[in-house]
C-alpha cells in the first residue's frame, strides 16, 4: 500500500507519536488540509478508542486499531480509480469480489470537521472510509481534499480469510514456516488496556489531567493569537509560536475525554460541553496555523 | 440524450433526482417550444449516472412573428413624413421606417410593426439552458470538489454525454465538456470508453458495458434473481421488503444475487434482531420457511457478475461478516440478561431525557402520573378491557431497555428489545402469565405509530403507554421553550403529537384531546403551557384530517370550528359533511350561513342590538323561517346526539327554501331597531342551532 501511494507522489509518513482516536487527528491530516498548498500523504496510524475495547474478546473490535490514512489534496479526478488500483496492488482481485460505494458522511465534532463520502463495502464488509473533506478545524477547505481511511486489521482479516483479527498472520518464518499472529503480538495488551480504560483509570486524576492540558493549550493559544495579531511582529516571530505543541496538548485533551467517556464519567449533558471545549482548542489551533502559513508566504 | 456521469450518488437520493431531471428537461423543452408531436421522455439512473432521452425534439424553434404597437399615427407621421418618434420606434422594433404599418384599434390609429423572430437552434439553446437545469436539481446534501468551489453537487461530476441524434451538444457541466463517451461498469467493463454513437443507442450501448440503466428493469431482474436464489432452499421465500429492494436497485448497475447461510444456532436470537442486522446493517434479505419463520439463510444483492469461484468467495465473505455481527448481538443479548429490566429502573437516573428536564428515571415517574390520570378518566367513563397493573408495570419499565447493550448497538430496536426482554425474563412475584404478556406487548409497541402510515399499538395498554409517554414529552418540551417553530422541530414533537391523534382516531379509547392534555403532568410550571399544547394538538388534528385522511381543507375547517375535542367524532362529522357538500341544497345553505355570519358581524361592528324573534310581529317570510327552524331544531339535535350526521345534515339542507325566501324578501337590517333586533335574533339562533356539526360558513361554495 505504501509503495503504491509513494509511486503516486505521496509523502509516506511514519505514525504520529501522540495518542489519537483516528488518523484524521494526526497533524499530517488535521493541519495539512488547511490552506491551498497541494499535498499528498499516507501513513499508518494506530488509533485509540477506549470505549471500543473489548478485553480482546471481540473478533473485530479493538481499543487500538491501525488505520492507513491517505490525504490527496486536491483530489485527482480519477481518485476512485486510483483507490481501486490500490486494492488490486495489495492483492485483491476485484473481479472476484462485490464492491459498493455506499453513502456514509463523516463528522468529527471534536475537531470541527466534516465531509461527505462513502463506506466502501467489499463482500458486505466495510474496508475503507472514503471522505471528501469539506471543513476541518471549523474552517471551510479550499481546495477540499480526499481522505481515504483503510482499516488495516479488517483488510488483513479479509484478505487472509480469517474470522478474527487476532488470527491474522503478521509474520512467517521463511525457513520453519512458524507464524506470528496479530493476537500473539497484541491480544494481551488489548486485555490490559481494557482493564485500565474501563476499571482502573482514576476518574479524578483524568479530570485533573484534562483541565491541566486544556489550561496550558488555552494559554498558548492566547499568546499565539496575540503574536499573529501584532502588526509589528516579524514573520519569524510569528513562526516561532509553538503551534505543534499546542495541538498536541489539544490531542491529549481529546484522548482524556475518550477515557473519561469509557469510564462512564461523562453524562450526556456534560458530553456536549466537553466536545465544545476540545473543539475550541482544535479550531483555535487551525486558525493560528492558517495565520502562520500566510505570514510564511508573506515573508 | 443527456447523461450526467457521477461518482456514486447516495441510493436514497437517486429516484427523486432522476424524476426531477426528467421534469426539468420536459419543462424546458415545452417552454422553449422544442417538443415535437411524437415526443416521449424516458429517464435512466444508476448509482453513477442520471440520464434522460427525449424523442422527437425539434432541430430548432419555429420562427415567430410579433406585432408591436407604437406611438399614435398622428405623432409618428406629419403630413406623411415620418417624425423622430416614428424613427425611434422603427429602430426599437428593428424594422425599416417604410415597413411601419397603420394599426387601427378602439383607441384610434397607431403605428405598428411586425417583427419576425428567428427560432434558435436547439443545440445552441440546450447548451445554454441544460446546465442551469442540472445545477438546479435538489440534493439533500451537497459537496464541493473543485478548487475555488465553482459549484456544489451531490458528488463530483466526472463525465457528460449530450447528443442530438449523433452530434454532440456543446454544453459544459461543472467544467466538463459534453461528449459522446460514457463509462461502463467499474469492474466488469473497466475503464475503456463507452461510445454512444447516437442518442437512441444509449440503453443498449450501456448494456454492452454491463450497466442496466433502466431502473424498472433492474428492479425486475433483482426480484427475479431473489426468487431464483431462494428456490434452492426447499419451501423457502424471501421476505418481501420494498424499501430494501429500492435501496439495492439504487446501489447496483449490474445486479445479481447470492444466497448465503449462517449457523442455525443464531436463530435462537429474536427475529427482530436478526432481521435488523441483515436489513439495516448488511442490506441482506431474510429468508423464511413455509411456516413464516426465519431460516438460516440470507440473500445479498451484488453489483457484479462472477463465476462459480467468485460466487463462493463472495458468499463466504458476506457470511463471515454476518456471523461476526450476529456474534456481537448474541454477546449483547446474553450480557443484558445478567441484569433484568426490573433491576435497571434505578440506572435510568444516568440516562438523560433532556438536559433541562432531567433523566429518564424522572420521565418515567412523570409518565406514571399521566397513566394514572388517564386510567381515572377511563374508569369514570366505564371503559374496561385492559389491565391497569400491566399498564403501570409497562410504563415503569418502558425506558429501561435504553440501558441495555443491545439497544445501544441497535438503537432502532428500542421498545422492541424491552418487550422481548420482558417476555424472556418474566417477573419475580405474583404477576400471572397474561399480565406479563401484556406488559411486554405494551413496551414492544410503545413507539408505534412511528409515522402517519404506521399502525397504532394493537393493545390498549400499548395505546395508553404511547399516549402517556408522548403527551408528557410534549408538555415538558413546551415548558422549556422547545415547541416546534416553522420547519424546525428538532425533538420531533409534531411526530409525537401526530401519533397521539392517530391513536385517538383509530383506537376504541373514549378519550378526548382535552382529557389527554388534562391528564398530562400537572405542576405550577407546566400548567401554563396546557393551552398551547391543546392548540398544538388541534393543529395536528387538522393535519391528520386533511393530510392523512384526505378531507378537503374547508370541510376540516368547518368541522373543527364546531368542535375539535373528540377526534373520532370529528372524523364522523367530516365524513358526513364530505358526503353532502356537493349537493345543491347544501351549497345554498352554506352560502346562506356565510351571509348570516357576515350580517351578524356587520351588525356587531355598527353596535346594533340583537333581540329575539318573539319581540315583534315578523313578516311572513321571517315567520316561516322562525317556525321551520324551531320545528327542525329538536330533530337535528336528536340526530346529532345519535351521531347520525348524514341524516342530520340532510335535515338541515331541508331549510333551504325558507332560508332563500327569507333573504329574498326580508331586509334584515331594517331601519326599525326593534324589527332589526328581531331579525338578528332569528338568524343568530338559526346559525347557533345548526352549527353544532360543522360551521357551514367555512365551506367554500362555487
Structural account:
The complex is a heterodimer of chains A (299) and B (702). Chain A is α+β, with helices and mostly antiparallel strands. Chain A has 2 domains: 2-164, Bira Bifunctional Protein, Domain 2 (BirA Bifunctional Protein, domain 2, 2-Layer Sandwich); 202-298, Class II aaRS and biotin synthetases, domain 2 (Methane Monooxygenase Hydroxylase, Chain G, domain 1). Helix content of chain A is 44%, strand content 24%. Chain A is built from 9 helices and 10 strands. Chain A has helices at residues 2-6, 27-30, 79-89, 152-160, 182-200, 203-229, 235-239, 243-262, 268-298, and strands at 11-12, 39-48, 64-73, 99-103, 106-108, 113-122, 125-136, 139-151, 169-172, 179-181. Chain B folds into 5 domains: 2-60 and 121-208, no CATH class; 64-117, no CATH class; 215-337, no CATH class; 346-550, Hypothetical protein af1432 (Orthogonal Bundle), CATH 1.10.3210; 576-698, Isoleucyl-tRNA Synthetase, Domain 1 (Orthogonal Bundle). In chain B, 50% of the residues lie in helices and 15% in strands. Chain B has a 5-stranded antiparallel beta sheet with strand order 2-3-1-11-12, covered by helices on one side. A 4-stranded antiparallel beta sheet of chain B has the order 17-19-20-18, sandwiched between helices. The mean pLDDT of chain B is 92. The interface between A and B is large, with 42 and 49 residues.
Amino acid at each position: 500500500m505504501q509503495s503504491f501511494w509513494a509511486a503516486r507522489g505521496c509523502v509516506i509518513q511514519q505514525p504520529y507519536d501522540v495518542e489519537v482516536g483516528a488518523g484524521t487527528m494526526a497533524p499530517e491530516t488535521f493541519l495539512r488540509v488547511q490552506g491551498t498548498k497541494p499535498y499528498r500523504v499516507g501513513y499508518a496510524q494506530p488509533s485509540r478508542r477506549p470505549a471500543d475495547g473489548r478485553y480482546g474478546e471481540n473478533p473485530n473490535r479493538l481499543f487500538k486499531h491501525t488505520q492507513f490514512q491517505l490525504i490527496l489534496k486536491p483530489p485527482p479526478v480519477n481518485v476512485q480509480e486510483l483507490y481501486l488500483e490500490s486494492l488490486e496492488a495489495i492483492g485483491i482481485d476485484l473481479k472476484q469480489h462485490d464492491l459498493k460505494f455506499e453513502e456514509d458522511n463523516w463528522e468529527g465534532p471534536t475537531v470541527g470537521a466534516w465531509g461527505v463520502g462513502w463506506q466502501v463495502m467489499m463482500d458486505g464488509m466495510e474496508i475503507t472510509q472514503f471522505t471528501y473533506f469539506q471543513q476541518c478545524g471549523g474552517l471551510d477547505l479550499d481546495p477540499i481534499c480526499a481522505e481515504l481511511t483503510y482499516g488495516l486489521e479488517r483488510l488483513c482479516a479479509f484478505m487472509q480469510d480469517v474470522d478474527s483479527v487476532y488470527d491474522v498472520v503478521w509474520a512467517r518464518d521463511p525457513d520453519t514456516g512458524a507464524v506470528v499472529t496479530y493476537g500473539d503480538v497484541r491480544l494481551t495488551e488489548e486485555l490490559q488496556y481494557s482493564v485500565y480504560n474501563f476499571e482502573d483509570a482514576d476518574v479524578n486524576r483524568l479530570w485533573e489531567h484534562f483541565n491541566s492540558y486544556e489550561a496550558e493549550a488555552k494559554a498558548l493559544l492566547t499568546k499565539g493569537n496575540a503574536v499573529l495579531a501584532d502588526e509589528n511582529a516579524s514573520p519569524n516571530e510569528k513562526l516561532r509560536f509553538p503551534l505543534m505543541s499546542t495541538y498536541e496538548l489539544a490531542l491529549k485533551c481529546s484522548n482524556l475525554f475518550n477515557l473519561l467517556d469509557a469510564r462512564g464519567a461523562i453524562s450526556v449533558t456534560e458530553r456536549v460541553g466537553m466536545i465544545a471545549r476540545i473543539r475550541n482548542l482544535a479550531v483555535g489551533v487551525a486558525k493560528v496555523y492558517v495565520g502562520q502559513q500566510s505570514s510564511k508566504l508573506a515573508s | 440524450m443527456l447523461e450526467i456521469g457521477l461518482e456514486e450518488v447516495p441510493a436514497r437520493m437517486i429516484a427523486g433526482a432522476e424524476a426531477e431531471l426528467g421534469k426539468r428537461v420536459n419543462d424546458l423543452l415545452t417552454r422553449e417550444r422544442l417538443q415535437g408531436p411524437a415526443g416521449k421522455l424516458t429517464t435512466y439512473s444508476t448509482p453513477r449516472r442520471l440520464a434522460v432521452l427525449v424523442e422527437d425534439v425539434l432541430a430548432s424553434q419555429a420562427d415567430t412573428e410579433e406585432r408591436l404597437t407604437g406611438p399614435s399615427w398622428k405623432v409618428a407621421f406629419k403630413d406623411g413624413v415620418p417624425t423622430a418618434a416614428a424613427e425611434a420606434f422603427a429602430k426599437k422594433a428593428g424594422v425599416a421606417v417604410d415597413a411601419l404599418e397603420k394599426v387601427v384599434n378602439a383607441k384610434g390609429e397607431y403605428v405598428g410593426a411586425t417583427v419576425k423572430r428567428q427560432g434558435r437552434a436547439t443545440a445552441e439553446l440546450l447548451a445554454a439552458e441544460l446546465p442551469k437545469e442540472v445545477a438546479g436539481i435538489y440534493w439533500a446534501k451537497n459537496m464541493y470538489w473543485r478548487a475555488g468551489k465553482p459549484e456544489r453537487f451531490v458528488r463530483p461530476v466526472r463525465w457528460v454525454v449530450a447528443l442530438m441524434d449523433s452530434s454532440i451538444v456543446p454544453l459544459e457541466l461543472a467544467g466538463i465538456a459534453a461528449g459522446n463517451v460514457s463509462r461502463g461498469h467499474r469492474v466488469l467493463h473497466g475503464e475503456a470508453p463507452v461510445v454512444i454513437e447516437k442518442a437512441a443507442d444509449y440503453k443498449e450501448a450501456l448494456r454492452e458495458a454491463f450497466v442496466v440503466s433502466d431502473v424498472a428493469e433492474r428492479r425486475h431482474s433483482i426480484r427475479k434473481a431473489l426468487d431464483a436464489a431462494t428456490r434452492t432452499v426447499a419451501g423457502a421465500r424471501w421476505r418481501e421488503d420494498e424499501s430494501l429492494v429500492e435501496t439495492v436497485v439504487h446501489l447496483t448497475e449490474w445486479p445479481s444475487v447470492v444466497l448465503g447461510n449462517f449457523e442455525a444456532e443464531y436463530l435462537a436470537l429474536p427475529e427482530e434482531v436478526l432481521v435488523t442486522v441483515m436489513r439495516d446493517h448488511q442490506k441482506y434479505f431474510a429468508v423464511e420457511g413455509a411456516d413464516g419463520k426465519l431460516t438460516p439463510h440470507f440473500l445479498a444483492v451484488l453489483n457484479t457478475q462472477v463465476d462459480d469461484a467468485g460466487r463462493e468467495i463472495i458468499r463466504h465473505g458476506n457470511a463471515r461478516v454476518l456471523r461476526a455481527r450476529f456474534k456481537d448481538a448474541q454477546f449483547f443479548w446474553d450480557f443484558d440478561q445478567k441484569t433484568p429490566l426490573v433491576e435497571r429502573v434505578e440506572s435510568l437516573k444516568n440516562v438523560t431525557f433532556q438536559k433541562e428536564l432531567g433523566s429518564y428515571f424522572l420521565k418515567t415517574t412523570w409518565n406514571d402520573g399521566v397513566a394514572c390520570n388517564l386510567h381515572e378518566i377511563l374508569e369514570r367513563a366505564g371503559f374496561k378491557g385492559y389491565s391497569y397493573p400491566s399498564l403501570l408495570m409497562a410504563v415503569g419499565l418502558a425506558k429501561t431497555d435504553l440501558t441495555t447493550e443491545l439497544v445501544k448497538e441497535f438503537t432502532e430496536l428500542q421498545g422492541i428489545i424491552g418487550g422481548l426482554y420482558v417476555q424472556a425474563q418474566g417477573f419475580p412475584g405474583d404477576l400471572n402469565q397474561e399480565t406479563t404478556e401484556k406488559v411486554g406487548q405494551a413496551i414492544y409497541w410503545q413507539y408505534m405509530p412511528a409515522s402517519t402510515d404506521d399502525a397504532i399499538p394493537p393493545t390498549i395498554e400499548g395505546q395508553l403507554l404511547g399516549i402517556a409517554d408522548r403527551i408528557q414529552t410534549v408538555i415538558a418540551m413546551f415548558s422549556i421553550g422547545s415547541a416546534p417553530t416553522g420547519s424546525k422541530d428538532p425533538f420531533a414533537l409534531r411526530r409525537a403529537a401526530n401519533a397521539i391523534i392517530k391513536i385517538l382516531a383509530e383506537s376504541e379509547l373514549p378519550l378526548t384531546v382535552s382529557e389527554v392534555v388534562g391528564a398530562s403532568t400537572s405542576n405550577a410550571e407546566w400548567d401554563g403551557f396546557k393551552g398551547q399544547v391543546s392548540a398544538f394538538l388541534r393543529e395536528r388534528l387538522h393535519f391528520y384530517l386533511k393530510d392523512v385522511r384526505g378531507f378537503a381543507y374547508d370541510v376540516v375547517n368547518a368541522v373543527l370550528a364546531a368542535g375539535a375535542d373528540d377526534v373520532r367524532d370529528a372524523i364522523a362529522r367530516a365524513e358526513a359533511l364530505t358526503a353532502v357538500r356537493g349537493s345543491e341544497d347544501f351549497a345554498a345553505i352554506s352560502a346562506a350561513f356565510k351571509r348570516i355570519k357576515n350580517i351578524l358581524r356587520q351588525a356587531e361592528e355598527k353596535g346594533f342590538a340583537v333581540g329575539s324573534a318573539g319581540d315583534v310581529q315578523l313578516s311572513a317570510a321571517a315567520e316561516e323561517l322562525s317556525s321551520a327552524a324551531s320545528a327542525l331544531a329538536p330533530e337535528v339535535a336528536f340526530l346529532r346526539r345519535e351521531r347520525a350526521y348524514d341524516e342530520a345534515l340532510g335535515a338541515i339542507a331541508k331549510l333551504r327554501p325558507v332560508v332563500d325566501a327569507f333573504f329574498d324578501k326580508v331586509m334584515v337590517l331594517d331601519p326599525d331597531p326593534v324589527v332589526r333586533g328581531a331579525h338578528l335574533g332569528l338568524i343568530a339562533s338559526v346559525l347557533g342551532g345548526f352549527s353544532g356539526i360543522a360551521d357551514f360558513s367555512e365551506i367554500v361554495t362555487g
